[in-house]
Specification:
The chain has 563 residues and is an alpha/beta fold. It folds into three domains: 81 residues, Gyrase A, domain 2; 218 residues, HUPs (Rossmann fold); 174 residues, Isoleucyl-tRNA Synthetase, Domain 1 (Orthogonal Bundle), CATH 1.10.730.10. It contains 21 helices and 15 strands. The protein binds arginine (ARG).
Length: 563
């Protein structure tokens, strides 16, 4: 809770011996109500100052003050604070109504640049659930970083290079049809790729052919290059449909191919630093001192690898952005790769290697199993999103047939449900995929939070609330109102924690808690009834609406006014 910060600040003024952070850490919530809202134990200070904690407590209690505290008293070795709930409440509501969606903003990031490697699907392959997770987690982290004063840079590190493109070209030349690819690029190219592998089992010469085509591509052969370009374009068109549905844009779509002419330098640097050794004809960086397998830099046939491109990308990003942090939002299964990447850069002597961070996440499961195929067919993500939107629309038609902006609202709720479901658990957990669960109005779901927000909006409209200066004063010290207030107070610190831990689930849990507090209030207080208190109550509702909207925005979700 944030009034903890107020107390810590008030204490800090009289305590040179402890840092603000350690004071903050020490503050507790008393177990008994009679001991106030917050307590500061003086044992630690007593050790430093070599006097009794009781003395310190009573001395501090005489000094510490804030207009938000009703009373400060020493009880034994503790300094106890009783908050002036009316004042605290009015202050925070006033603050939110003033700052609106900027409530909780900070300049902590000092404009530091943070490239975020996210989404990064592979050309000519389906956009997987893993890529969805990377996209939505990465986007939410970008929004959080921005709110905290950093400059996020969303990078779609497309998988658009590698030997598989040689194979695809062979398959396309042998069995492909242009029309079919144009109509259904991902499906069609995937089928060609699968066919290639089936045929290659009996005809190994195909593999040789594939290699030759990839070599042609690397050497800049026109036919190979134009095929590659075409596959890339068609695939991107498909991916863009998903990004559009999600409402996500990138600052850079430099994929792996972009680093083609930048890998020679990496290999040279590694050579100069005598880090390359030979292993079975391939060139590797030995990492045995870290108990890790070697990092493969160049294959025996001279071809570079995924890691080589990531090394080039890391160097490029460092030069281009001079980042304070460089994030990679990629599944758990690539943990080893990123460990190796970081170690190799460290060995190369780059101090900034410590700023690379693998933001890992778990899998999406269907009935407990990894979700990649359905009846042998790929689950196309766009279909999943469209299904969610249709289901949301269906639910709305039942509940609210007169709704005006049904299409928009259904899109917000359908897509939001998928996003929220993905983000509500800590990213390292696996997630079970279930459209029905996601779209429930009760429980910890996106629609629940969105619905609560819409309810608040409708109250504001019915009550014809116009935010007015100085009008905000909390009606009586009401428990239901107070539990909303304490949630509202904690929002800035919640944003801070979520940003520092790259953990959007902290925000998802927060909006659920706030929505629940609000719904309890709504069940017990007739907001519109008593005209003398109405505007004060509506001010509280307005604050909740604003913070819910902002919380949802940080998750990449929309908050429709009606649904
Ligand atoms: N394209 C890769 C995949 O689908 C993910 C790329 C992650 N980013 C990176 N810089 N390695 O597995």
């Amino acid at each position: 809770m944030n009034y903890k910060a107020q107390f810590a600040e008030a204490l800090q003024e009289h305590l040179a011996e402890l840092s603000y952070d350690s004071i903050y850490q020490l503050i507790e919530q008393p177990k008994q109500l009679s001991h106030g809202d917050l307590a500061f134990p003086c044992f630690e200070l007593a050790k430093i100052k070599r006097t009794s904690p009781m003395n310190i407590a009573s001395e501090l209690a005489g000094k510490v003050a804030s207009d938000l505290f009703e009373k400060v008293e020493a009880v034994g070795p503790y300094v106890n604070v009783f908050l002036d709930k009316r004042k605290v409440g009015s202050k925070v509501i006033h603050d939110i109504l003033q700052k609106k969606n900027h409530y909780g903003d900070s300049d902590r990031g000092k404009d530091g640049k943070v490239p975020i490697d996210m989404s990064s699907p592979n050309i000519a392959k389906p956009f997987s659930m893993g890529h969805l997770r990377s996209t939505v987690i990465g986007n939410s982290i970008a929004l959080l970083l921005k709110k905290s004063g950093y400059q996020p840079i969303r990078i779609n590190h497309l998988g658009d290079w590698g030997t598989q493109f040689g194979k695809l070209m062979v398959a396309y030349k042998k069995w492909g049809e242009e029309n079919k690819v144009r109509q259904n690029p991902i499906e069609e190219l995937l089928q060609l790729y699968i066919l290639f592998h089936e045929e290659a089992e009996t005809d190994p010469s195909l593999v040789e052919e594939g290699r030759a085509w990839f070599k042609r591509l690397e050497d800049g052969d026109t036919e190979a290059e134009s095929l590659w370009k075409w596959f890339r374009e068609e695939s991107l068109k498909e991916f863009n449909k998903i990004y559009e549905l999600l409402g996500i844009e990138f600052d850079s779509t430099h994929g792996e191919a972009f680093y083609n002419d930048k890998m020679e330098e990496v290999v040279k640097l590694l050579e100069e630093k005598s880090l390359l050794t030979e292993s079975e004809g391939a060139q590797v960086v030995d990492l045995s001192e870290h108990d890790l397998p070697p990092s493969l830099i160049r294959k025996s046939d001279g071809a570079t690898l995924y890691t080589t491109r990531d090394l080039a990308a890391a160097l490029y990003r460092n030069r281009t952005y001079d980042f304070v942090r460089s994030l990679y939002v990629v599944g758990n299964e690539q943990g080893l790769h990123f460990k190796q990447l970081k170690l190799v850069l460290e060995k190369m002597g780059y101090a900034w290697a410590k700023d690379l961070h693998h933001v890992s996440f778990g899998m999406i499961l269907k009935d407990g199993k990894k979700m990649s195929t359905r009846k042998g067919k790929v689950v196309l993500l766009e279909e999943v999103l469209r299904e969610a939107i249709d289901l949301a629309k269906f639910n709305m038609e039942e509940k609210n047939p007169g709704l005006v902006d049904k299409e928009e609202a259904a899109k917000a709720v359908g897509v939001g449900a998928v996003l929220f479901h993905d983000l509500k658990n800590h990213r390292n957990n696996d997630v079970e995929f279930s459209l029905e669960d996601m779209l429930r109005i009760e429980g910890e779901t996106g629609p629940y939070v969105q619905y609560t927000h819409a309810r608040g909006c409708s109250l504001l409209e019915k009550g014809n609330f116009q935010a007015q200066e100085g009008l905000i004063d909390l009606e009586e010290d009401h428990t239901y109102a107070w539990s909303i207030i304490s949630e509202l107070l904690s929002f800035p610190n919640t944003v801070k924690r979520a940003t520092e831990q790259f953990d959007p689930s902290i925000i998802a849990k927060y909006v659920v808690d706030l929505a629940q507090a609000f719904n309890r209030y709504y069940a017990h207080v007739r907001v519109l009834e008593d005209t003398s208190k109405r505007d004060h109550r509506l001010a509280l509702v307005q604050a909740v609406v604003l913070v819910l909207e902002e919380g949802l925005r940080l998750l990449g979700m929309k908050a429709p006014k009606q649904m």
